[in-house]
From TrEMBL:
<dbReference type="InterPro" id="IPR006669">
    <property type="entry name" value="MgtE_transporter"/>
</dbReference>
<dbReference type="Pfam" id="PF00571">
    <property type="entry name" value="CBS"/>
</dbReference>
<keyword id="KW-0129">CBS domain</keyword>
<dbReference type="GO" id="GO:0015095">
    <property type="term" value="F:magnesium ion transmembrane transporter activity"/>
</dbReference>
<dbReference type="InterPro" id="IPR006667">
    <property type="entry name" value="SLC41_membr_dom"/>
</dbReference>
<comment type="similarity">
    <text>Belongs to the SLC41A transporter family.</text>
</comment>
<keyword id="KW-0812">Transmembrane</keyword>
<dbReference type="GO" id="GO:0046872">
    <property type="term" value="F:metal ion binding"/>
</dbReference>
<keyword id="KW-0479">Metal-binding</keyword>
<dbReference type="InterPro" id="IPR036739">
    <property type="entry name" value="SLC41_membr_dom_sf"/>
</dbReference>
<dbReference type="InterPro" id="IPR000644">
    <property type="entry name" value="CBS_dom"/>
</dbReference>
<keyword id="KW-0460">Magnesium</keyword>
<dbReference type="Pfam" id="PF03448">
    <property type="entry name" value="MgtE_N"/>
</dbReference>
<feature type="transmembrane region" description="Helical">
    <location>
        <begin position="355"/>
        <end position="375"/>
    </location>
</feature>
<feature type="domain" description="CBS">
    <location>
        <begin position="195"/>
        <end position="251"/>
    </location>
</feature>
<keyword id="KW-0472">Membrane</keyword>
<comment type="subunit">
    <text>Homodimer.</text>
</comment>
Length: 443
């Protein structure tokens, strides 16, 4: 309804009314809404957004929209936009833009800002330094609470957060002071007497995924970032950490579905790119599955002697793959939230073994009863029961071990997810099945 209202106002060129509607909306909702308009339309609409609000809306837009707007803006408009933007957001945008657009952005920034941008861009892509911001409130330990509050009022408008302030001396991080502490203490109390010195901080080269886990673990709003000399260089805020967390989840989901990770949106990715991101894994899994086919061909004489053997292969393979997928999914999740580590390997194996035994006996009993009722064959019931128990135990152990081993050697545990586990377990389950059948039926 709101989109239709905006379209109607835009067609009638009622810009004052449009300005009221746009500026009353939430920043994230507004950025999402603008994606439904043409380039010409959202360029007009964006210019109607208040200057202070425009920068926040801009950071929530997709890269193609941002590029279109920058190319449509005058030099002064670009300067106004990026002057109101936090430094980490500016760096994120620059990293996504083509060279000609980056030149336009850097051309309107002052020398000091360009130096900060260049410094942030030099940090490794997956490091804390690449997602930090240099906009924070710093205090001196000999300041009083009154002096600290005055400084916050003076500079806080340009900082990313004022809920946590950082006590610094000769660039070294000494402690932190929360806004709550400042408000609850008398005005003449010294900062050094109320600052917290038991600090949680990260190094500039710390993996950004580990940084995001610290927010989850300690419930923080911001984490200070220091260099190798313990000098304060910036902070990572909660919103940036959550973006990292979301990116990691999306990447793991892609890998677990046997696809290469893709940072673009679904509709923003071409058909060719979609196919390219999927086809390599599918080719690998398809070729791997030929091993299972070769094993089945090897036992074709057994089929001729006992054709009934063929009918149970799909059930056995599916059950093994599903059991392996269950275990691998649980272990990958445990690794992601730091609940399970490599030194827990034998504890995990023992637990999954016990689960597999229970599951295996229940499924074997159900299938054995079904086979006795339908085929009246005790030996076939024993064959399927033993094959199921052995396959489930193997699948559970493979499913729990491979993600931990992948993590140990520096690979993404998500690689060892359903498609790969299923392919491995399929091969093993066929070998188990026919070996037991050969001995039981003397084939």
């Amino acid at each position: 309804m709101r989109e239709e209202n905006i379209r109607a106002l835009l067609m009638r060129r009622e810009y004052p009314a449009l300005k009221v509607v746009l500026n009353s909306m939430n920043n994230v909702d507004l950025a999402s809404l603008l994606e439904n308009f043409t380039e010409k339309e959202y360029t007009i609409l964006f210019r109607l957004i208040q200057k202070e609000k425009a920068a926040e809306v801009f950071t929530e837009m997709s890269s193609p929209m941002q590029e279109t707007l920058i190319n449509a803006f005058t030099r002064s408009e670009i300067k106004e936009l990026f002057d109101d933007m936090y430094m980490d957001d500016t760096v994120d945008i620059i990293e996504e833009m083509p060279a000609n657009v980056v030149e336009q952005i850097l051309d309107v920034t002052d020398r000091e800002t360009r130096q900060i941008i260049n410094r942030l861009l030099k940090y490794p892509e997956d490091s804390a330094g690449s997602i930090m911001t240099v906009e924070y409130v710093d205090l001196k330990k000999n300041m009083t609470v009154e002096q600290a509050l005055k400084k916050i009022k003076r500079v806080g408008i340009d900082q990313e957060t004022i809920y946590t302030c950082y006590v610094i001396e000769q660039k070294r991080l000494l402690g932190i002071v929360t806004a709550k502490s400042l408000l609850l203490n008398e005005s003449n109390v010294l900062i050094k007497d109320i600052m917290e010195t038991n600090l949680i901080y990260v190094n500039t080269h710390e993996d950004k995924e580990n940084v995001s886990k610290l927010f989850h673990k300690y419930g923080l709003l911001a984490i200070p970032v220091v260099d190798f000399e313990h000098c304060m260089v910036g902070i990572v805020t909660f919103d940036d950490a959550m973006e990292v967390w979301q990116d990691e989840v999306e990447e793991d989901m892609s890998i677990m579905a046997a696809m290469q990770p893709n940072e673009e949106s679904y509709f923003g990715t071409s058909v060719i790119s979609h196919a390219k991101h999927r086809i390599l894994w599918l080719l690998f899994l398809m070729l791997s599955a030929t091993i299972t086919g070769a094993i089945i061909t090897k036992y074709e004489n057994a089929f001729q002697t006992l054709p009934l053997l063929v009918s149970f292969i799909p059930m056995l393979m599916d059950t093994g793959g599903n059991c392996g997928s269950q275990s691998s999914t649980l272990i990958i999740r445990g690794i992601a939230v730091d609940e399970i580590r490599f030194h827990d390997l034998f504890k995990v194996i023992f637990k999954e073994f016990r689960v597999a035994v229970l599951v295996g006996f229940v499924l074997a009993a159900v299938n054995g009863l079904r086979i006795m009722l339908i085929y009246h064959s005790l030996r076939m019931a024993v064959l399927i029961g033993l094959s199921l128990i052995a396959t489930i135990i193997l699948a559970k152990i493979v499913g729990c071990c491979l993600p931990l081993l992948a993590k140990k050697i520096g690979l993404d545990p998500a690689i060892m997810a359903a498609p790969l586990i299923t392919t491995l377990v399929d091969t093993c389950s066929i070998l188990i099945y026919f070996n037991i059948a050969t001995h039981l039926f003397s084939l």
